Protein backbone atom coordinates (compact mmCIF):
# COMPACT_ATOMS: atom_id res chain seq x y z
CA UNK A 1 0.00 0.00 0.00
CA UNK A 2 2.87 2.40 0.77
CA UNK A 3 4.28 1.73 -2.71
CA UNK A 4 0.95 2.42 -4.42
CA UNK A 5 0.53 5.63 -2.42
CA UNK A 6 4.03 6.73 -3.38
CA UNK A 7 3.16 6.19 -7.02
CA UNK A 8 0.06 8.33 -6.62
CA UNK A 9 2.17 11.08 -5.07
CA UNK A 10 4.64 10.94 -7.93
CA UNK A 11 1.82 11.54 -10.39
CA UNK A 12 0.33 14.33 -8.25
CA UNK A 13 3.60 16.16 -7.88
CA UNK A 14 4.04 16.11 -11.64
CA UNK A 15 0.61 17.71 -12.17
CA UNK A 16 0.68 21.13 -13.88
CA UNK A 17 0.56 24.17 -11.60
CA UNK A 18 -2.67 25.39 -13.21
CA UNK A 19 -4.47 22.37 -11.79
CA UNK A 20 -3.19 23.08 -8.28
CA UNK A 21 -5.01 26.31 -7.40
CA UNK A 22 -7.95 25.94 -5.05
CA UNK A 23 -9.51 27.80 -2.17
CA UNK A 24 -9.88 26.36 1.32
CA UNK A 25 -13.38 26.48 2.82
CA UNK A 26 -13.49 25.96 6.58
CA UNK A 27 -16.25 23.37 6.99
CA UNK A 28 -18.39 24.56 9.92
CA UNK A 29 -15.30 26.50 11.02
CA UNK A 30 -12.25 24.64 12.27
CA UNK A 31 -14.57 21.81 13.29
CA UNK A 32 -11.78 19.29 13.83
CA UNK A 33 -10.47 21.48 16.67
CA UNK A 34 -13.47 23.29 18.16
CA UNK A 35 -17.20 22.46 18.44
CA UNK A 36 -18.66 23.18 15.02
CA UNK A 37 -20.57 26.35 14.16
CA UNK A 38 -19.24 28.40 17.06
CA UNK A 39 -17.50 31.75 16.83
CA UNK A 40 -14.44 30.03 18.30
CA UNK A 41 -14.40 27.51 15.43
CA UNK A 42 -14.79 30.23 12.81
CA UNK A 43 -12.11 32.43 14.36
CA UNK A 44 -9.63 29.57 14.57
CA UNK A 45 -10.27 28.75 10.90
CA UNK A 46 -9.67 32.36 9.92
CA UNK A 47 -6.45 32.49 11.94
CA UNK A 48 -5.30 29.33 10.15
CA UNK A 49 -5.67 31.03 6.77
CA UNK A 50 -8.99 29.68 5.45
CA UNK A 51 -10.26 31.57 2.42
CA UNK A 52 -13.93 31.04 3.35
CA UNK A 53 -15.84 30.01 6.45
CA UNK A 54 -19.00 27.95 6.10
CA UNK A 55 -22.03 28.55 8.34
CA UNK A 56 -24.99 26.21 7.90
CA UNK A 57 -28.08 28.33 8.48
CA UNK A 58 -31.34 27.45 10.21
CA UNK A 59 -34.02 29.83 11.50
CA UNK A 60 -35.52 30.59 14.89
CA UNK A 61 -39.22 30.99 15.66
CA UNK A 62 -38.77 34.76 15.52
CA UNK A 63 -37.08 34.59 12.11
CA UNK A 64 -33.41 34.98 12.96
CA UNK A 65 -30.81 33.02 11.00
CA UNK A 66 -28.46 31.06 13.27
CA UNK A 67 -25.65 28.62 12.57
CA UNK A 68 -26.35 24.92 13.22
CA UNK A 69 -25.65 21.94 11.00
CA UNK A 70 -29.25 20.81 11.46
CA UNK A 71 -32.40 22.44 12.75
CA UNK A 72 -32.52 19.58 15.30
CA UNK A 73 -30.49 20.90 18.22
CA UNK A 74 -29.71 18.04 20.58
CA UNK A 75 -26.68 16.78 18.64
CA UNK A 76 -24.78 20.05 18.99
CA UNK A 77 -26.21 21.78 22.07
CA UNK A 78 -27.14 20.96 25.66
CA UNK A 79 -30.88 21.36 25.02
CA UNK A 80 -31.70 17.74 25.98
CA UNK A 81 -30.43 18.38 29.51
CA UNK A 82 -32.44 21.56 30.00
CA UNK A 83 -35.55 20.84 32.04
CA UNK A 84 -37.19 24.12 31.06
CA UNK A 85 -37.33 22.97 27.45
CA UNK A 86 -38.39 19.37 28.01
CA UNK A 87 -41.85 20.07 26.60
CA UNK A 88 -40.38 21.33 23.31
CA UNK A 89 -39.37 17.86 22.20
CA UNK A 90 -41.06 16.95 18.92
CA UNK A 91 -41.14 14.31 16.18
CA UNK A 92 -40.92 15.75 12.67
CA UNK A 93 -40.51 14.35 9.18
CA UNK A 94 -37.75 16.33 7.46
CA UNK A 95 -36.91 15.59 3.84
CA UNK A 96 -38.55 12.18 4.17
CA UNK A 97 -36.75 11.22 7.40
CA UNK A 98 -38.41 10.94 10.80
CA UNK A 99 -36.44 13.00 13.32
CA UNK A 100 -37.02 13.29 17.06
CA UNK A 101 -35.63 16.10 19.16
CA UNK A 102 -35.66 19.84 19.69
CA UNK A 103 -35.84 22.14 16.68
CA UNK A 104 -34.51 25.66 16.15
CA UNK A 105 -37.76 26.87 14.59
CA UNK A 106 -39.58 26.14 17.87
CA UNK A 107 -37.31 28.48 19.88
CA UNK A 108 -36.97 32.24 19.94
CA UNK A 109 -33.49 33.66 19.64
CA UNK A 110 -33.56 34.67 23.31
CA UNK A 111 -34.31 31.07 24.29
CA UNK A 112 -31.68 29.72 21.93
CA UNK A 113 -29.09 32.07 23.45
CA UNK A 114 -29.44 30.24 26.77
CA UNK A 115 -28.20 26.99 25.20
CA UNK A 116 -24.53 26.08 24.93
CA UNK A 117 -22.76 24.28 22.11
CA UNK A 118 -21.19 20.86 22.47
CA UNK A 119 -19.03 18.59 20.30
CA UNK A 120 -21.13 16.53 17.86
CA UNK A 121 -18.76 13.51 17.61
CA UNK A 122 -16.90 13.38 20.94
CA UNK A 123 -15.67 9.80 20.53
CA UNK A 124 -13.68 10.84 17.45
CA UNK A 125 -12.86 14.34 18.66
CA UNK A 126 -12.52 14.07 22.45
CA UNK A 127 -10.29 17.15 22.60
CA UNK A 128 -13.16 19.23 21.25
CA UNK A 129 -15.40 18.06 24.09
CA UNK A 130 -13.20 20.06 26.48
CA UNK A 131 -14.92 23.14 25.08
CA UNK A 132 -18.46 21.89 25.69
CA UNK A 133 -20.61 24.47 27.41
CA UNK A 134 -18.41 27.47 26.60
CA UNK A 135 -20.03 28.85 23.46
CA UNK A 136 -23.50 29.99 22.52
CA UNK A 137 -25.24 29.51 19.18
CA UNK A 138 -24.19 32.39 16.90
CA UNK A 139 -26.45 34.30 14.55
CA UNK A 140 -25.47 34.94 10.95
CA UNK A 141 -25.03 38.60 11.89
CA UNK A 142 -22.62 37.57 14.69
CA UNK A 143 -20.55 35.65 12.16
CA UNK A 144 -20.42 38.58 9.76
CA UNK A 145 -19.28 40.87 12.56
CA UNK A 146 -16.53 38.41 13.45
CA UNK A 147 -15.39 38.24 9.82
CA UNK A 148 -15.21 42.02 9.57
CA UNK A 149 -13.26 42.28 12.81
CA UNK A 150 -10.78 39.65 11.62
CA UNK A 151 -10.48 41.33 8.22
CA UNK A 152 -9.56 44.57 9.98
CA UNK A 153 -7.07 42.72 12.17
CA UNK A 154 -5.44 40.67 9.42
CA UNK A 155 -5.72 42.96 6.41
CA UNK A 156 -7.09 40.19 4.19
CA UNK A 157 -10.53 39.35 2.79
CA UNK A 158 -12.38 36.42 4.32
CA UNK A 159 -15.23 34.85 2.38
CA UNK A 160 -18.62 33.61 3.56
CA UNK A 161 -20.08 30.35 2.27
CA UNK A 162 -23.53 29.90 3.89
CA UNK A 163 -25.76 26.88 3.28
CA UNK A 164 -29.55 27.03 3.54
CA UNK A 165 -30.62 23.96 5.51
CA UNK A 166 -33.91 22.26 4.61
CA UNK A 167 -35.46 25.37 3.00
CA UNK A 168 -38.46 23.52 1.50
CA UNK A 169 -39.31 21.88 4.83
CA UNK A 170 -38.97 25.22 6.60
CA UNK A 171 -41.32 26.91 4.12
CA UNK A 172 -43.94 24.18 3.93
CA UNK A 173 -44.12 23.10 7.57
CA UNK A 174 -42.90 26.10 9.53
CA UNK A 175 -43.91 28.94 7.19
CA UNK A 176 -40.36 30.28 7.21
CA UNK A 177 -38.88 31.48 3.91
CA UNK A 178 -35.12 30.92 4.20
CA UNK A 179 -34.43 32.69 0.90
CA UNK A 180 -36.19 35.84 2.11
CA UNK A 181 -34.38 35.73 5.44
CA UNK A 182 -30.97 35.34 3.84
CA UNK A 183 -31.54 38.13 1.33
CA UNK A 184 -32.83 40.34 4.16
CA UNK A 185 -29.73 39.70 6.26
CA UNK A 186 -27.32 40.18 3.36
CA UNK A 187 -28.93 43.52 2.57
CA UNK A 188 -29.05 44.70 6.19
CA UNK A 189 -25.43 43.69 6.73
CA UNK A 190 -24.28 45.51 3.61
CA UNK A 191 -23.08 42.37 1.83
CA UNK A 192 -23.18 42.55 -1.97
CA UNK A 193 -22.41 40.12 -4.82
CA UNK A 194 -19.06 41.87 -5.17
CA UNK A 195 -18.03 40.47 -1.79
CA UNK A 196 -16.49 36.98 -1.53
CA UNK A 197 -19.72 35.03 -0.98
CA UNK A 198 -21.03 31.66 -2.18
CA UNK A 199 -24.54 30.46 -1.26
CA UNK A 200 -25.16 26.72 -1.34
CA UNK A 201 -28.07 24.30 -1.11
CA UNK A 202 -28.88 20.65 -1.81
CA UNK A 203 -32.21 21.85 -3.20
CA UNK A 204 -32.94 23.39 -6.59
CA UNK A 205 -35.80 25.87 -6.23
CA UNK A 206 -34.15 28.01 -3.51
CA UNK A 207 -31.09 28.47 -5.72
CA UNK A 208 -33.29 29.35 -8.68
CA UNK A 209 -35.10 31.94 -6.56
CA UNK A 210 -31.79 33.35 -5.43
CA UNK A 211 -30.71 33.56 -9.07
CA UNK A 212 -33.83 35.56 -9.88
CA UNK A 213 -33.79 37.79 -6.81
CA UNK A 214 -30.26 37.74 -5.44
CA UNK A 215 -28.68 40.24 -7.78
CA UNK A 216 -25.67 38.15 -8.73
CA UNK A 217 -24.48 36.23 -5.67
CA UNK A 218 -22.51 33.14 -6.66
CA UNK A 219 -24.59 29.99 -6.15
CA UNK A 220 -23.55 26.38 -5.56
CA UNK A 221 -25.64 23.28 -6.22
CA UNK A 222 -24.68 20.60 -3.72
CA UNK A 223 -24.75 16.96 -4.90
CA UNK A 224 -24.04 13.62 -3.25
CA UNK A 225 -23.78 9.98 -4.34
CA UNK A 226 -27.27 8.98 -3.20
CA UNK A 227 -30.81 10.39 -3.22
CA UNK A 228 -31.90 13.61 -4.86
CA UNK A 229 -33.08 17.15 -4.00
CA UNK A 230 -35.82 17.24 -1.34
CA UNK A 231 -37.83 19.71 -3.39
CA UNK A 232 -37.64 17.59 -6.59
CA UNK A 233 -38.22 13.97 -5.49
CA UNK A 234 -38.35 12.67 -9.07
CA UNK A 235 -34.79 13.87 -9.76
CA UNK A 236 -31.66 12.00 -8.65
CA UNK A 237 -28.31 13.63 -8.05
CA UNK A 238 -26.83 11.01 -10.39
CA UNK A 239 -28.90 12.54 -13.20
CA UNK A 240 -27.87 16.04 -12.22
CA UNK A 241 -24.15 15.32 -12.60
CA UNK A 242 -24.53 13.82 -16.09
CA UNK A 243 -23.61 16.30 -18.85
CA UNK A 244 -27.27 17.18 -19.57
CA UNK A 245 -27.96 17.70 -15.87
CA UNK A 246 -24.90 19.89 -15.44
CA UNK A 247 -26.08 22.05 -18.34
CA UNK A 248 -29.34 22.58 -16.44
CA UNK A 249 -27.50 23.45 -13.23
CA UNK A 250 -25.43 26.02 -15.13
CA UNK A 251 -28.63 27.95 -15.89
CA UNK A 252 -28.92 29.01 -12.24
CA UNK A 253 -25.68 28.12 -10.42
CA UNK A 254 -22.00 28.95 -10.74
CA UNK A 255 -20.51 25.84 -9.17
CA UNK A 256 -21.20 22.30 -8.05
CA UNK A 257 -20.36 21.27 -4.50
CA UNK A 258 -19.67 17.54 -4.83
CA UNK A 259 -19.04 14.72 -2.39
CA UNK A 260 -15.48 13.41 -2.80
CA UNK A 261 -16.80 9.99 -3.85
CA UNK A 262 -18.21 11.63 -6.98
CA UNK A 263 -14.83 13.15 -7.85
CA UNK A 264 -12.34 10.36 -7.16
CA UNK A 265 -12.43 6.62 -7.80
CA UNK A 266 -11.41 4.29 -4.93
CA UNK A 267 -7.80 4.31 -6.14
CA UNK A 268 -7.67 8.11 -6.17
CA UNK A 269 -7.89 8.76 -9.90
CA UNK A 270 -10.35 11.43 -11.06
CA UNK A 271 -13.82 10.70 -12.39
CA UNK A 272 -15.12 12.75 -15.32
CA UNK A 273 -17.21 15.08 -13.13
CA UNK A 274 -14.73 17.98 -12.98
CA UNK A 275 -14.18 17.93 -16.75
CA UNK A 276 -17.91 17.61 -17.42
CA UNK A 277 -18.73 20.45 -15.04
CA UNK A 278 -16.10 22.72 -16.54
CA UNK A 279 -17.48 21.98 -20.01
CA UNK A 280 -20.84 23.25 -18.72
CA UNK A 281 -19.20 26.38 -17.31
CA UNK A 282 -19.32 25.28 -13.67
CA UNK A 283 -16.58 25.30 -11.05
CA UNK A 284 -16.32 22.31 -8.70
CA UNK A 285 -15.84 22.41 -4.93
CA UNK A 286 -15.24 19.15 -3.05
CA UNK A 287 -16.62 18.13 0.33
CA UNK A 288 -15.33 17.19 2.86
CA UNK A 289 -11.68 16.51 3.78
CA UNK A 290 -11.35 15.42 7.41
CA UNK A 291 -8.05 14.48 9.08
CA UNK A 292 -9.17 11.48 11.13
CA UNK A 293 -8.62 7.93 9.87
CA UNK A 294 -12.34 7.24 10.26
CA UNK A 295 -13.10 9.55 7.34
CA UNK A 296 -10.19 8.72 5.05
CA UNK A 297 -9.82 6.01 2.39
CA UNK A 298 -8.06 2.91 3.71
CA UNK A 299 -4.88 3.64 1.77
CA UNK A 300 -4.57 7.08 3.42
CA UNK A 301 -5.01 5.98 7.04
CA UNK A 302 -2.13 5.95 9.49
CA UNK A 303 -2.44 3.21 12.08
CA UNK A 304 -5.69 1.65 13.24
CA UNK A 305 -7.08 4.22 15.69
CA UNK A 306 -10.23 5.72 14.08
CA UNK A 307 -9.53 9.09 15.67
CA UNK A 308 -5.84 9.08 14.66
CA UNK A 309 -4.68 11.62 12.07
CA UNK A 310 -4.11 10.12 8.63
CA UNK A 311 -2.85 11.41 5.31
CA UNK A 312 -5.47 14.03 4.49
CA UNK A 313 -2.74 15.96 2.69
CA UNK A 314 -2.65 13.21 0.09
CA UNK A 315 -6.40 13.44 -0.42
CA UNK A 316 -6.10 17.19 -0.90
CA UNK A 317 -3.37 16.60 -3.45
CA UNK A 318 -5.57 14.16 -5.35
CA UNK A 319 -8.42 16.67 -5.44
CA UNK A 320 -6.09 19.42 -6.56
CA UNK A 321 -4.74 17.24 -9.34
CA UNK A 322 -8.33 16.41 -10.33
CA UNK A 323 -8.90 20.12 -10.97
CA UNK A 324 -11.33 21.12 -8.22
CA UNK A 325 -11.23 24.85 -7.50
CA UNK A 326 -12.27 24.67 -3.85
CA UNK A 327 -12.24 22.18 -0.99
CA UNK A 328 -14.20 21.98 2.25
CA UNK A 329 -11.98 20.98 5.17
CA UNK A 330 -12.67 20.26 8.84
CA UNK A 331 -9.07 21.18 9.67
CA UNK A 332 -8.39 24.26 7.53
CA UNK A 333 -4.91 24.69 8.96
CA UNK A 334 -3.78 21.34 7.58
CA UNK A 335 -5.57 22.07 4.32
CA UNK A 336 -3.90 25.46 3.94
CA UNK A 337 -0.51 23.85 4.60
CA UNK A 338 -1.13 21.18 1.98
CA UNK A 339 -2.73 23.42 -0.66
CA UNK A 340 -0.60 26.52 -0.29
CA UNK A 341 2.50 25.33 1.57
CA UNK A 342 4.39 23.55 -1.18
CA UNK A 343 5.15 19.97 -2.23
CA UNK A 344 6.79 18.98 1.04
CA UNK A 345 3.53 19.39 2.95
CA UNK A 346 1.74 17.10 0.52
CA UNK A 347 3.85 14.10 1.57
CA UNK A 348 2.00 13.95 4.89
CA UNK A 349 2.43 10.56 6.62
CA UNK A 350 2.99 8.34 3.61
CA UNK A 351 5.61 6.28 5.36
CA UNK A 352 3.11 5.41 8.10
CA UNK A 353 0.15 4.66 5.85
CA UNK A 354 -1.31 1.17 6.00
Automatic annotation (TrEMBL):
Its EC number is 3.1.4.46. It comes from the Bacteria. Residues 1-19 form the signal peptide. InterPro entries: GP_PDE_dom, PLC-like_Pdiesterase_TIM-brl. It catalyses: a sn-glycero-3-phosphodiester + H2O = an alcohol + sn-glycerol 3-phosphate + H(+). GO terms for molecular function: glycerophosphodiester phosphodiesterase activity. Residues 22-319 form the GP-PDE domain. Coiled coil: none annotated. Gene3D superfamilies: Phosphatidylinositol (PI) phosphodiesterase (3.20.20.190). GO terms for biological process: glycerol metabolic process; lipid metabolic process. Keywords: Glycerol metabolism, Hydrolase, Signal. One of its GO terms (cellular component) is periplasmic space. Belongs to the glycerophosphoryl diester phosphodiesterase family. This is glycerophosphodiester phosphodiesterase. It comes from Erythrobacter neustonensis.
Amino acid sequence: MVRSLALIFAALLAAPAAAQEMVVIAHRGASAERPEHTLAAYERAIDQGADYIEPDLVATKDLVLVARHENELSGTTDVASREEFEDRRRDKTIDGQRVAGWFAEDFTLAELRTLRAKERIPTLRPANARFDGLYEVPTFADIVRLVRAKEAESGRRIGLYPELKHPTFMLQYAGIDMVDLLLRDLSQLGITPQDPVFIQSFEIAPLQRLKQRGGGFRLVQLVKPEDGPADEPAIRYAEMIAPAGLAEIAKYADAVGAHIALLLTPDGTPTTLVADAKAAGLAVHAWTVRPENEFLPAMLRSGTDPKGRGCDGALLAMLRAAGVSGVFADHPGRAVDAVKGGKENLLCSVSGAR
